[in-house]
Design brief:
Layout (H helix, E strand, L loop, with lengths): L26 H12 L9 H4 L15 H29 L1 H25 L2 H30 L4 H30 L5 E3 L6 E4 L2 E6 L2 E8 L1 H5 L8 E4 L7 H20 L19 H4 L11 H4 L3 H22 L1 H9 L9 H29 L1 H28 L3 H33 L4 H8 L1 H31 L3 H8 L6 H6 L5 H5 L15 H19 L10 H4 L1 H6 L1
Antiparallel strand pairs: 1-5, 2-3, 3-4, 4-5
Helix pairs in contact: 1-5, 1-6, 1-8, 3-4, 3-5, 3-16, 3-17, 4-5, 4-8, 5-6, 5-16, 6-8, 6-13, 6-15, 11-15, 11-17, 11-21, 12-13, 13-14, 13-15, 14-15, 14-21, 15-16
Length: about 575
C-alpha cells in the first residue's frame, strides 16, 4: 500500500487503516446511510406524475413530457450506475472507500441540482444530464464503495455482510418515497382555474384545447374528477390554464440534492479498512472440501482474468435478466397499480394508497436483501437463485390473471393477490442484488471482489435499458390498441360533442393527449369494460420468459478452472497477497 502526502491524501486508503481494537460493527450503519441516500432512486416513480404534468399541473398538456420519455431518466441513471461501477471498481481497490464515497456524494447531490435547472427551464436533456448521467455515476460509486469494504470486514458472513450493505439501497425509497411525496405537496401550486367545462367556451385546434379569455386565446387543459383526485391538493374539476401552476418537482430536486450530499460526506469520512492479514477473532477459512459443497473457493481470480471465464458471463446473464424483470416494474410502480386498480377499485386505490404501495416496495426490497442474502449463507448461493427464478416465474404469470379478473369482477381479493405477488417479487429482486457479491466472492475469491463486482454491474446498466424499454413499449402498444377499440364503440356525434372534432381526427387527438381512456370511458356504451387494468399483461408474460433463461444460466454454474487462479496467471500478485 503506497504512502501519500498532501491535502488529498486524507481521502486515500493508507490514511484510513483501522487501529487495533476497531469495532467492525460500526461499518454496517455507515454503509446503510450511503445506500439509503442513493437508494432513493427507487422512488423515481413518485416523480413521474409530476414531471408528465409539469406544464398542465393538474393533468397532462400537449407540450408536457410523455411517461416513456420521463421513465428513461431512471434508466439513464441505472446505465451510468453500471458503467461507473465497472470503471471505478479497480480504482476503489487502489484508493479506498473514503475517496470513492466523497466523489459519489458530489455526483449524486450535484446531479439533483442540475436536474432542477432542467425542470424549471423545461429542458429534458438537462434532467438526463444531471440526474441520469452525473447522478448515475454517483450511484455507481456509492453502490460499490461499502460492498467490497464489508466483505473484507466480514469474511465469516459474506451473505449477511453484503445483505446489510445493499439493504440500505433497497430501503432508500422507504424514506425517499414519503419524503418526496411530502415535499411535492409542500411545494405544489395549483394552476389558474377558469371554471367548469359547461361554463367555458372551448376551442379545439390541432388536437389542443384553448379558451378565450379577455379576447386572448390561451391554452388550457380539462381536468376530470379522476385527474383532480391524483393531485396533492384537491380542487374542482374543470378548465385550468396551462403553465400557471407548479408541481413542486424542481424545489424537491434542490432540497434532496443538498440533503443527500451532507449525509454522504459525513458517512464517507467514517469509513475504515482492515489492516493487512486481519481476520475476525477465532475465525479460520473453511476447508476446501467443505467449501466445494456451496461452490465456495479458497483460491482467487484476478479482475482481468475473471472476464475470460464462462462463470462471469453466466452471472452476468442471471443478474441482467433478474433485474430486467423487476426494474421496469419498479420504475412505473405507482403508475401501474393506479392504472390497474384505480378505475375498478377507486375507493381503495387512490393517490395515498399508490404512494404507500411504493413505500411497501421499498420495505420488501430492503428486507429481501438481508433475508435472502443471509439465507444464502445456509442453503448456498446457487440454490437461492433457483428460488428467485422458479418462484418469480409463477408470480409474474399470476399478475395478468389478477389484472384481467379485476376488470370483470372488481373484488378486493384480486388487489390482495396482486399486492402479495409483487411484494414477493420485489423481495427477490433486492435479494438478487444482495446475494450477487457473495456469489462473486464464492466463485472468484475475495481479493478482487470489488473490481469484479463493478464490472458485473454492467448487467444492471443493460437491464436499466431493457426493463423500462420493454414495459413502456409493450404498455404503449396495449394503450394504443385500447384507445382505438374504445373509440370505435362511441357514437360519432357523441365523440364530436365531447372533443370538438370528429372521430376521423382520433390519432391527432391521441398524440396531443386530448383523448385518454378515462374520458372515453365517460361516453362509451354502458357495460363496456375498462381496458386499463390489462395494459401490463403482455409485459408480465415477457418478464416471466426472461426468468426461464436466467434459470438455465444458474443451473450450469460451476467452479472456475484452476488455470484462471491468481497463482497461475499473476504469480506476483499471489506472492503480495
Amino acid at each position: 500500500m503506497s504512502k501519500s502526502s498532501g491535502f488529498f491524501s486524507v481521502f486515500l486508503k493508507d490514511k484510513i487503516v483501522a487501529k487495533p481494537g476497531f469495532n467492525r460493527w460500526w461499518l454496517p450503519p455507515i454503509s446503510v446511510a450511503i445506500h439509503m441516500c442513493i437508494g432513493s432512486v427507487y422512488a423515481w416513480s413518485i416523480f413521474n406524475p409530476a414531471l408528465v404534468k409539469q406544464l398542465g399541473v393538474v393533468t397532462t398538456s400537449a407540450d408536457d413530457w410523455s411517461l416513456s420519455s420521463v421513465v428513461y431518466i431512471f434508466s439513464c441513471a441505472i446505465v451510468f450506475l453500471g458503467l461507473a461501477a465497472a470503471f471505478a471498481g479497480k480504482w476503489l481497490e487502489e484508493v479506498g472507500p473514503r475517496a470513492t464515497g466523497v466523489l459519489s456524494a458530489i455526483c449524486w447531490g450535484g446531479g439533483f441540482l442540475i436536474g432542477s435547472v432542467g425542470i424549471v427551464s423545461h429542458e429534458l436533456w438537462l434532467i438526463y444530464l444531471g440526474y441520469g448521467v452525473l447522478g448515475g455515476c454517483g450511484l455507481g460509486l456509492g453502490y460499490i464503495t461499502p460492498v467490497s469494504t464489508l466483505i473484507r470486514w466480514f469474511p465469516d458472513r459474506r451473505g449477511m455482510a453484503t445483505g446489510m450493505a445493499i439493504m440500505g439501497f433497497g430501503g432508500g425509497a422507504m424514506i425517499g418515497a414519503p419524503l418526496i411525496s411530502y415535499l411535492l405537496g409542500l411545494f405544489y401550486k395549483a394552476p389558474q382555474y377558469l371554471g367548469k367545462v359547461a361554463d367555458v367556451e372551448l376551442i379545439t385546434d390541432a388536437g389542443r384545447r384553448f379558451a378565450e379569455v379577455a379576447g386572448n386565446k390561451i391554452e388550457v387543459v380539462v381536468a376530470t374528477a379522476a385527474d383532480m383526485a391524483k393531485t396533492p391538493l384537491s380542487g374542482p374539476e374543470g378548465v385550468y390554464v396551462v403553465g400557471t401552476g407548479d408541481t413542486g418537482a424542481a424545489s424537491v430536486f434542490i432540497t434532496l440534492g443538498l440533503l443527500y450530499f451532507v449525509i454522504m460526506i459525513i458517512a464517507s469520512f467514517s469509513f475504515r479498512v482492515p489492516a493487512k492479514n486481519w481476520s475476525p477473532e477465532g475465525w479460520d477459512a473453511p476447508e476446501q472440501t467443505e467449501s466445494s459443497k456451496k461452490l465456495i473457493t479458497n483460491d482467487h481470480v484476478h479482475i482481468n482474468e475473471s472476464i475470460k471465464t464462462p462463470q462471469f458471463y453466466r452471472l452476468w446473464i442471471m443478474l441482467c435478466l433478474n433485474v430486467t424483470a423487476g426494474i421496469g416494474v419498479i420504475g412505473v410502480a405507482k403508475t401501474m397499480i393506479t392504472e390497474i386498480f384505480g378505475s375498478t377499485l377507486p375507493h381503495i386505490v387512490d393517490a395515498k394508497f399508490a404512494a404507500t404501495y411504493v413505500l411497501m416496495i421499498s420495505l420488501f426490497n430492503m428486507c429481501g436483501r438481508f433475508i435472502w442474502a443471509s439465507l444464502s449463507d445456509v442453503i448456498g448461493r446457487k440454490n437461492t437463485y433457483h428460488c428467485f427464478f422458479v418462484l418469480g416465474l409463477l408470480l409474474y404469470v399470476s399478475i395478468p390473471y389478477a389484472a384481467t379478473a379485476v376488470s370483470v369482477d372488481p373484488a378486493v381479493m384480486w388487489l390482495v393477490m396482486f399486492y402479495a405477488a409483487t411484494m414477493i417479487i420485489f423481495s427477490m429482486y433486492g435479494g438478487g442484488f444482495a446475494t450477487i457479491p457473495a456469489y462473486i466472492a464464492d466463485v472468484f475469491g475475495t481479493h478482487h471482489v470489488g473490481g469484479i463486482h463493478g464490472r458485473l454491474l454492467t448487467a444492471w446498466s443493460a437491464a436499466g435499458i431493457l426493463g423500462p424499454l420493454a414495459i413502456t413499449y409493450l404498455r404503449q402498444s396495449s394503450l394504443t390498441d385500447a384507445l382505438n377499440n374504445l373509440a370505435l364503440k362511441v357514437e360519432p356525434a357523441v365523440f364530436k360533442e365531447k372533443f370538438g372534432v370528429g372521430i376521423e381526427n382520433l390519432q391527432e387527438l391521441i398524440r396531443a393527449k386530448t383523448v385518454t381512456i378515462s374520458n372515453l370511458m365517460e361516453i362509451v356504451p354502458e357495460g363496456t369494460i375498462d381496458p386499463t387494468a390489462s395494459l401490463y399483461n403482455t409485459t408480465m408474460y415477457t418478464m416471466a420468459g426472461l426468468l426461464v433463461i436466467a434459470f438455465f444460466a444458474n443451473l450450469y454454474m460451476n467452479k472456475v478452472d484452476e488455470k484462471h487462479h491468481i497463482q497461475n496467471t499473476h504469480p506476483e500478485s499471489a506472492l503480495e497477497s
